[in-house]
């Protein structure tokens, strides 16, 4: 089969190589899947760079999220049949940027009929992250105001749709006019281009000085620091990640005097500590997809020859919505 593999870490365009390799075989508790589509995620770029918390042995194939058809079951796997269209996360080092990938049986879920292969490949990591951040951590309530940073990106776009589906008012922050159009198309009530506008002033004016009830922050750095200036009384800032590369040092005295909460969301930890929560979230997300309330925005569909450049552009912040690999 064909696979994009990393033999040494570095920038995606430098280290992702298209090669002919043997098909992987599923071990106990694993499923072999023929890849229909694989969404590109920021962790894929970090894996190429050797900067992700998981460091698979070299050489490896990135691609942590996919939609595909079950091809073979490993020992002890039941409950899913060959040919079933599924989605979920891949088991590295046999990731999804290939014709075939391996998945842990507990990370295999039925793909909603309402979504195309490209859309279904994008429903797992980003939307699960958004669901847990907004509903489990922030306890979002109908009518609240949610400030979403990087609202045109993979995780941010999911948060916009999920917040709207929950009945919230959404302020999306983006960088540039094209991303502003994307955030508006996703359903954000107000879109702020951080390059030309001050989101703090916009949020305060929109809420009559109260501020945002929930901040969804996958960026960190200045985005986090400035969010503390427009967080509401008893508001919740959910820290998703640090795409800016700058990990802020929160002023806990400020959180105290303004009565707001700083919440962390490492979605992958739920798979280890509370795995029973993942299928429930998938069921909720599938219901929303069937009702047309969430639909991953796929902006680009790339073949194997174009994928390294696509992963690089995502790493550099030059993409909108979801970039998807199609074998």
From TrEMBL:
Oxidoreductase in keyword set: yes
Keyword Membrane attached: no
PANTHER family: QUINONE OXIDOREDUCTASE-LIKE PROTEIN 2 (PTHR43677:SF4), SHORT-CHAIN DEHYDROGENASE/REDUCTASE (PTHR43677)
Official protein name in the record: NADPH2:quinone reductase
CDD domains in alphabetical order: QOR1 (cd08241)
Source organism of the structure: Streptomonospora salina
An example molecular function term from Gene Ontology annotations: quinone reductase (NADPH) activity
Catalytic activity, EC: 1.6.5.5
Pfam families: ADH_N, ADH_zinc_N
Gene3D superfamilies reported for this sequence: Medium-chain alcohol dehydrogenases, catalytic domain, NAD(P)-binding Rossmann-like Domain
Keywords recorded for this protein, A-Z: Oxidoreductase
Residue ranges annotated for the Enoyl reductase (ER) domain, each copy included: 11-325
EC supergroup of this enzyme: oxidoreductase
């Amino acid at each position: 089969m064909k696979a994009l593999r990393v033999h040494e870490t570095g920038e995606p365009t430098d280290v992702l190589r298209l090669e002919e390799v043997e098909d992987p075989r599923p071990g106990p508790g694993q499923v072999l899947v023929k890849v229909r589509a694989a969404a590109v995620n920021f962790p894929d770029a970090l894996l190429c760079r050797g900067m992700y918390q998981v460091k698979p042995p070299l050489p490896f194939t990135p691609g942590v999220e996919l939609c595909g058809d079950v091809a073979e079951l490993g020992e002890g796997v039941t409950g899913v049949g060959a040919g079933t269209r599924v989605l979920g996360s891949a088991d590295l080092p046999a990731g999804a940027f290939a014709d075939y990938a391996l998945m842990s049986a507990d990370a295999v879920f039925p793909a909603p009929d309402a979504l195309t292969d490209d859309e279904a490949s994008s429903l797992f990591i980003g939307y699960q992250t958004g669901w847990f951040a907004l509903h489990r951590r922030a306890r979002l309530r109908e009518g609240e105001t949610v400030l979403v940073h990087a609202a045109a990106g993979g995780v941010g776009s999911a948060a916009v749709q999920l917040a709207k589906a929950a009945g919230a008012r959404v302020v999306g922050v983006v960088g540039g006019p094209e991303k502003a159009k994307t955030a508006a198309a996703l359903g954000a009530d107000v879109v702020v281009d951080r390059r030309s506008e001050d989101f703090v002033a916009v949020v305060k004016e929109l809420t009559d000085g109260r501020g945002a009830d929930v901040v969804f922050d996958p960026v960190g750095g200045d985005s986090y620091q400035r969010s503390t200036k427009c967080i509401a009384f008893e508001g919740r800032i959910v820290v998703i990640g640090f795409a800016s590369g700058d990990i802020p040092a929160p002023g806990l005295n400020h959180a105290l005097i303004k009565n707001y909460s700083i919440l962390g969301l490492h979605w992958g930890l739920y798979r280890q500590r509370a795995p029973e929560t993942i299928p429930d979230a998938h069921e909720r997300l599938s219901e929303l997809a069937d009702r047309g309330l969430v639909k991953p925005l796929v902006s680009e569909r790339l073949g194997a020859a174009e994928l390294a450049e696509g992963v690089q552009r995502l790493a550099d912040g030059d993409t909108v919505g979801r970039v998807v690999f199609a074998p």
